[in-house]
Amino acid sequence: MTQTGFEKVPARDRRRFPGISSRAYEHPADRSALVALRKLSGFDTVFKALSGLLPERSLRLLFLSDSVRVGETQFPHLYAMLRDACYILDLEKVPQMYVQQDPKPNAMCIGLDEPIIVVTTSLVELLDEEEMRAVVGHEVGHALSGHAVYRTILLFLTNLALKVAWIPLGNVAIMAIVTALREWFRKSELSADRAGLLVGQDLQASMRGLMKLAGGNHIHEMNVDAFLAQAEEYESSGDLRDSVLKIMNMLPRTHPFTTVRAAELKKWSENRDYQRIMDGHYPRREEDKDTSVSDSFRQSAAHYADSVRTSKDPLFKLVGDLAGGAADMGGKLRDKFTGAGSGSGSSSGSGPEAKGGATEQG
C-alpha cells in the first residue's frame, strides 16, 4: 500500500502568532460545553473547594520524583519542540514537561496554579519528529486555553468516584460532575488539535499522529483517505439503536474517537478561519476582556444547531426533523390564532386575496 500523502515536510520556518487568543482556535463545542458545565448544580462549590484542597506542590513532587524532567540535558529534542511551540503561540512562560514510563501512548496538561505537561514513553517512541511537534503544540494549546485546572479536577474526581462507589448513592453527585467534565474535555481536545496544527503547520503530520494512536506504528499499512472515510461511515451508518450505542461508548471516554478528531481537524484546516489565522488575522489576548460571554454562547448555540441540522447520524437527523416539524406546526398555530394566514381585509379567510396568504410579510 502506498504512502501517498505522507511525505515528510522538510525543516522550515514556521509562522508565529504574537498575542494570539485561545479564542482563535477554540472549537465552538468546547466553549458551549464549558458554559454548560459551569451551569451544572454544585459545580462551582466543588470547583472552589478542590481548587483550595488539591496540593499543587504534591503534584509537582510526584512527577519530579518518578518521571524524567525535559530540559537541555534530558530529552533535549522535546525541550526544543516545547520552547518552539510556546514561541509560536506566544506563551510567555514555558511549562515544565515530564516523560513518564507508560506502555500506553498518552499526553496531558494538568496543574492548578501552573500547567505541567506529561508525555508517556510509548508516545515518544511511537511518533516521528513532526508528529510529536503537533502533540506538543496540542498540549501547549491546552495550557494557553486554561484547560489544565479542569483536567486536574477531572482526574481527582474520577479517582474519588471509584473510592466511594461502594456507598449507596455516594458517588451520584460526583459522577454527574465527572460526566459533564468528560463531555467538556472531549470537546476541548478538538480545540487543542487545532492548536497542534497551528504549531506544527503540517496537516499530514497531525493526521499521521492520530492514525498511529488508532492503529499503532504501521503507517505504511494505512491510508489517510480511507481513515477519514471511516469517520464518515461512523457518523452516517446504522439506525437509532446505533446512535444510542455511540453515546454509550463515548460516555466513559475522555477523548473523542480518533477518526472523528481527524475529520474535524481536516475540516477546520480547509476553513477560511484557519487561513485567516495563518495570514495573521486572529483574535488577540488583549481583546479578551472586551469579549461578550453572551456572544460566545450564541455562537456555540448556533454551532450546535448547525451540527444537528447537517449531521448524518440517525438520532441527530431525527432530532432535527422533530425540531423542524415542531417549528412548522408552531408557525401554523401562530398564523391561525393571529390571522397571519388571512388577507388583511377579511377575517374569515375567504376571497381571492386570502388564497395567496400574506405574501408581502415575507
TrEMBL record:
<keyword id="KW-0378">Hydrolase</keyword>
<keyword id="KW-0472">Membrane</keyword>
<dbReference type="Pfam" id="PF01435">
    <property type="entry name" value="Peptidase_M48"/>
</dbReference>
<dbReference type="GO" id="GO:0006508">
    <property type="term" value="P:proteolysis"/>
</dbReference>
<keyword id="KW-1003">Cell membrane</keyword>
<keyword id="KW-0645">Protease</keyword>
<comment type="similarity">
    <text>Belongs to the peptidase M48 family.</text>
</comment>
<keyword id="KW-0862">Zinc</keyword>
<dbReference type="GO" id="GO:0046872">
    <property type="term" value="F:metal ion binding"/>
</dbReference>
<feature type="region of interest" description="Disordered">
    <location>
        <begin position="330"/>
        <end position="362"/>
    </location>
</feature>
<feature type="domain" description="Peptidase M48">
    <location>
        <begin position="90"/>
        <end position="268"/>
    </location>
</feature>
<dbReference type="InterPro" id="IPR001915">
    <property type="entry name" value="Peptidase_M48"/>
</dbReference>
<dbReference type="InterPro" id="IPR050083">
    <property type="entry name" value="HtpX_protease"/>
</dbReference>
<feature type="region of interest" description="Disordered">
    <location>
        <begin position="279"/>
        <end position="298"/>
    </location>
</feature>
<feature type="compositionally biased region" description="Basic and acidic residues">
    <location>
        <begin position="279"/>
        <end position="292"/>
    </location>
</feature>
<keyword id="KW-0482">Metalloprotease</keyword>
<keyword id="KW-0812">Transmembrane</keyword>
<dbReference type="GO" id="GO:0004222">
    <property type="term" value="F:metalloendopeptidase activity"/>
</dbReference>
<keyword id="KW-1133">Transmembrane helix</keyword>
<protein>
    <submittedName>
        <fullName>Peptidase M48</fullName>
    </submittedName>
</protein>
<keyword id="KW-0479">Metal-binding</keyword>
